[in-house]
Amino acid sequence: MSNDPGFLERARYGKDKVRVLRVVREGAWHQIVEYNVCALVEGEIDVSYTEADNSVVVATDSIKNITYFLAKTSPHILHPERFALHLGTFLLARYAHLRKAFITVEQLRWARVAVPGSGATETTEHPHSFWRDGDDKRITNVEVDATKGLGNIVAKVTSGISDLLVLKSTGSAFHGFVTDEYTTLVPATDRVFSTAVDARWEFSPIPVLNPLPASVVGDKQALATFVKETLSREFVLGAQESGAGTPWDGVNIAALARKATLEVFATDDSASVQATLYKMGQRVLAEAPHVQRVSYGLPNKHYVPVDLRWAGLDNVGDGGAGAEVFMPLAAPSGLISATIARR
Predict the structure, then answer these.
(1) Catalytic residue among 184, 301, 302, 339
(2) Is 220 a catalytic residue?
(3) Is 11-147 assigned to CATH 3.10.270.10?
(4) Is 191 annotated as a binding residue?
(5) Does 302 participate in catalysis according to the annotation?
(6) At the fourth CATH level, which superfamily is domain 149-206+244-343?
(7) Which of 90, 150, 202, 283 lies deepest, with the highest CB count within 10 Å?
(8) What is the per-residue pLDDT across 33-85, written as a single tens digit (0 to 9) for each?
(9) Closest Cα to residue 249, out of 279, 199, 198, 206?
């Protein structure tokens, strides 16, 4: 028994900030995705920490190489959730002593450049030219759990968006809050509402089919060959797990959630950030039945009316309704967050 005062409670490692741009060439028509990938693993790796035994360590450089390898071979590279599931399962199938894989994929936005079409007023999408149409990002976090064996893999998928900057110049109020000796905030019946949306939606856990045929189990060379030559190019889920609304359908669910968030933000006569956040979450749950919970983090982007009374100008009006010139404030800022779970 060790005389160390502590024990290794948990260990996880891998490669972070693996930057990938993938061009999918379909003749003259190209599709692109740009990802930042983090791939971490857990398993029977304790001795690398406690006994300085590196024989159980798959080098983080190898994990990076596998990420690029699958970026080339995976048929799912254009779909963040599918690619993350594929990458996580690949790692666990290749290395029997690894039990869990944690894959995070951050997707940057690219849109096609519009160019003149055949008609005088028509435009068409260019087949291979793109532009960055926003700073918001698509986020996917996938946990692939094979602790009960490759025949009983369970995956947990949480996706989301971050840095979606929005602003409405009216339709927002904030009053009726606690007032006491510490209160200096003036109640507002009309104010600018701006935030950088950070949203996450968590799917129900899904089973993943055993990625290895029985014929290669126990044969190290056959297993390595199968994983490299076949599993890298062929990865599917069961029919139920790959249906509409599931993590496999993540691209459509992300579009749905983004649309719901923006529409509620724009149309809600907001009594507070909290109240609008709650309506956003309810809308996503109503439209995405496979999503179990939705979380939002909404930091206030403050725009303060400038006092122009020195010039004889009213720049505030009734409760802020007359304000037209504002000073953006970066800090400090309110941060409103909540999770709305399915009943």
Answers:
(1) 302
(2) no
(3) yes
(4) yes
(5) yes
(6) Urate Oxidase; (3.10.270.10)
(7) 90
(8) 999 999 999 999 999 999 999 999 999 999 999 999 999 999 999 999 999 99
(9) 206
